[in-house]
Inverse folding.
């Protein structure tokens, strides 16, 4: 009897224990479940973007940090690529050709838009910005981001070729800033003879995209042209082109430019200029804050002006610049657009421009009081930018530029005569435009 009672009691205790364990288990489970989101925070969306190494520095110092602080759920993975824009373009191109691009944001040079858009690599951004919003940007920068009437790229910074000169040395020697190619050669020779400088004039002569950008300016100054985008006429075998090449060759022959100039890209020329060895430099506005830095021997000694031209022709300033698009294969187009909106906003641009000395893409910033007090030459830059010459905005630009770079480099380094080099360049370009056109 007592045995039966005992078993009954044990059974009830067991039952109770089961219940309690059940309740305890349920409570523990809900505690665990409730605490999971706290223990494993939500993974931020990572947007990858590739840019040239020198460009990456000002991005890292400012706008990326500000954007991430304002958008805790988004991180920017900035990948630093090679310095030359065409090498960066090759990286983007091979990534797109191989399949899904690893880049969400596509940081595009002003000349890539038509190629990237026609290949179908970019999202159409036409309905993201109103006409009024677009009028805040320089029209040529916006145009560069359009293809067949649709918008694929929003300008994040503009760029324009300028002529830097040593205002201190020119003043001491009693020279005005040069207006013509002949002035440039004359002043250079004189300053060299007086041993004020080792070199007169520095330009980008390596076989790369910068050679084409520099050349359109000299070409314009001699009244020539490369490709007319309206009728696809090619001007490379015209006498003006040969005069432009003759000028560049003269600078080397007369030792106004160093013999190595045909291997230089922007940074090579900036370093020589900034060390005080040359009177003139053709480059982009990014040089200004570097050459005027506290530790620069050129601080306060330089000025800019539009490139020189022959009398009667207008000076050429090549339009450069960078803008952002979204890769069609990006898994985060919403976040990518948020980033573009921020990076191209007036507030972000002001900080970015103040830090980097780049050319703004928003017109109002050229005369912004804060910017002008740091960079008094910006209103002048706007005038130069408004006159800027475009490299031909055609979908086959990369191939056309490659042809020009190859033959121009052959002419400058005496591997071909300028005449035969330009005849070959012109006929290859015509074939290219006919085949694709
Ligand atoms: C600058 C310009 C770009 C140009 C390049 C050439 O980065 O912004 O448009 O293609 O220089 O080297």
């Amino acid at each position: 009897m007592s045995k039966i009672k005992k078993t009954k009691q044990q059974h009830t205790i067991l039952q109770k224990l089961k219940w309690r364990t059940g309740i305890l288990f349920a409570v523990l489970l809900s505690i665990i479940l409730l605490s999971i989101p706290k223990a494993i925070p939500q993974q931020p969306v990572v947007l990858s973007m590739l840019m040239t190494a020198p460009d990456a520095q000002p991005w890292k110092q400012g706008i990326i940090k500000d954007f991430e602080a304002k958008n805790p759920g988004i991180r920017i993975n900035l990948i630093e690529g090679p310095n030359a824009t065409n090498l960066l373009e090759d990286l983007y191109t091979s990534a797109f050709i191989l399949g899904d691009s690893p880049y969400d944001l596509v940081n595009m040079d002003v000349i890539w838009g038509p190629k990237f858009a026609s290949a179908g690599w970019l999202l159409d951004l036409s309905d993201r910005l109103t006409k009024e919003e677009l009028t805040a940007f320089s029209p040529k920068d916006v145009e560069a981001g359009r293809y067949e009437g649709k918008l694929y790229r929003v300008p994040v910074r503009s760029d324009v070729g300028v002529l830097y000169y040593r205002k201190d040395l020119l003043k001491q020697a009693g020279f005005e800033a040069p207006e013509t190619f002949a002035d440039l050669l004359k002043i250079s020779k004189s300053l060299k003879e007086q041993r004020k400088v080792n070199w007169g004039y520095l330009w980008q002569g390596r076989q790369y995209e910068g050679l084409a950008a520099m050349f359109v300016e000299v070409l314009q100054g001699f009244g020539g042209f490369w490709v007319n985008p309206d009728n696809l006429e090619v001007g490379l075998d015209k006498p003006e082109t040969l005069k432009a090449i003759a000028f560049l060759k003269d600078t080397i022959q007369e030792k106004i430019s160093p013999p190595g100039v045909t291997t230089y890209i922007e940074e090579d020329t900036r370093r020589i200029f900034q060390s005080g060895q040359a009177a003139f430099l053709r480059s982009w506005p990014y040089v200004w804050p570097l050459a005027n830095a506290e530790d620069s021997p050129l601080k306060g000694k330089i000025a800019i002006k539009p490139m020189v031209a022959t009398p009667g022709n207008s000076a050429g300033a090549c339009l450069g610049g960078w803008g952002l698009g979204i890769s069609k294969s990006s898994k985060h187009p919403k976040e990518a657009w948020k980033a573009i909106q921020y990076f191209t906003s007036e507030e972000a641009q002001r900080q970015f421009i103040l830090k980097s000395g780049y050319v703004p893409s928003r017109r109002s910033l050229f005369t912004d009081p804060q910017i002008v007090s740091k960079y008094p030459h910006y209103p002048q830059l706007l005038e130069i930018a408004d006159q800027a010459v475009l490299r031909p905005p055609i979908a086959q630009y990369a191939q056309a530029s490659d042809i020009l770079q190859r033959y121009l480099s052959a002419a400058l380094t005496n591997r071909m005569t300028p005449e035969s080099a330009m005849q070959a360049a012109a006929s290859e370009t015509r074939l290219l435009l006919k085949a694709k056109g």
Residues 85, 109-111, 159, 209-210, 213, 266, 284, 320-321 surround alpha-D-glucopyranose (CB under 6 Å). The two ends are 106 Å apart (CA to CA). The longest strand covers residues 45-52.
